Amino acid sequence: MHDPKASTAHIINGKAFALKLREKIAAKVPDFVKASGRKPGLAVILVGDDPASKVYVGSKGKATIAAGMNSFEHLLPANVAQEDLIALVKKLNDDDAVDGILVQLPLPDGLNEQEVIAALDPDKDVDGLHVINAGRLVSGQKAMVPCTPLGCQILLKDYLGDLSGLNAVVLGRSILVGKPMAQLLLNENCTVTMAHSRTKNLPDVVRAADIVVAAVGRPEMVKADWLKAGAIVIDVGINRLAPTDSKPKGRLVGDVDTHNAMAHVKAITPVPGGVGPMTIACLLRNTLLAAHRRNAIDDPEI
Ligand code: NDP
Fold first, then answer.
1. Taking the domains of the chain in order of start, what are their residue ranges?
2. 146-276 under CATH 3.40.50.720, yes or no
3. Does the annotation mark 249 as catalytic?
4. Which stretches of the chain drop beneath a pLDDT of 50?
5. Hey, do 36-125 and 146-276 end up sharing a CATH topology, with the first three levels equal?
6. pLDDT tens digits, residue range 247-293?
7. 227 in helix, strand or coil?
8. Which is the closest atom of ligand 1 to the Cα of 199?
9. Residues 6+ apart with CB under 8 A from 188
10. 198: Cβ below 6 Å to ligand 1?
């Protein structure tokens, strides 16, 4: 049985890993500049003034510039017309200085996200949300893979090496995280179960897993006694708890009850400092890959 006082799990330090990955990416940029005569470029479109989205876009821009790439920010008002937003996407599709385009989601009410994503050039779709990229991923072709599940896969491979034959349970089936995550684990020869809000006996399903990826958006939902002893846990969830006197902004927690799981599992990603930083590093990686592929240059080894 687990003993919450004995913290034995290895903490998978996504923050440190992401920093190293960003350094590796930055080190490859000069080769691209030499081969193509220009820097890789990432365009980010932010519609409206949602404070959290503004913070995300700001940190993506800073990280892009720090990696030696060009960052182009396009800020549009919340009441922008759908046609004008799509016209901007098409203009960026045709702009040779732009290798990657990211539309910060969610879009304000009244705008059709599916239509905007469908307008993206799939080769510039660094978030991997276009149906062409989903299809490429499923059929084993070179795809732009969504950044968050890609970051989880990289952390798992770094920690475990070969994932073949392991039982993996992915909690959550969103287009952004759960579905591509399950596909990536299948590509690694895991036996994959996808769980969701209609799954019966969820604790029992999770208990069968050697690898658990939790992406549900429910604070500390996955309890220690749902986890098999020795499991590897990747906690994607980012949930802000209600403010308290000591944490006036509210504490950030994941989807896993990490404190109690620590004594029980083999390794776990913390929140914050686990998967989150890997998402931005993978965005830079996808931008560099897109730049190479668009210029018919071999993928860099990262
Ligand atoms: P979505 O809301 O799109 O999907 C949530 C999924 O969880 C759904 O498939 C839903 O099932 C499932 N779910 C919800 N409640 C339960 C439950 N009680 N039991 C089992 N399954 C449940 O979220 P996202 O995939 O976009 O994000 C998930 C979490 O990851 C969020 O906390 C988000 O903030 C975080 N996130 C973190 C990122 C990072 O960089 N670290 C990036 C992206 C997301 P159903 O389909 O049946 O409704």
1. 36-125, 146-276
2. yes
3. no
4. 1-4
5. yes
6. 999 999 999 999 999 999 999 999 999 999 999 999 999 999 999 99
7. coil
8. 20
9. 153, 156, 157, 163, 164
10. yes
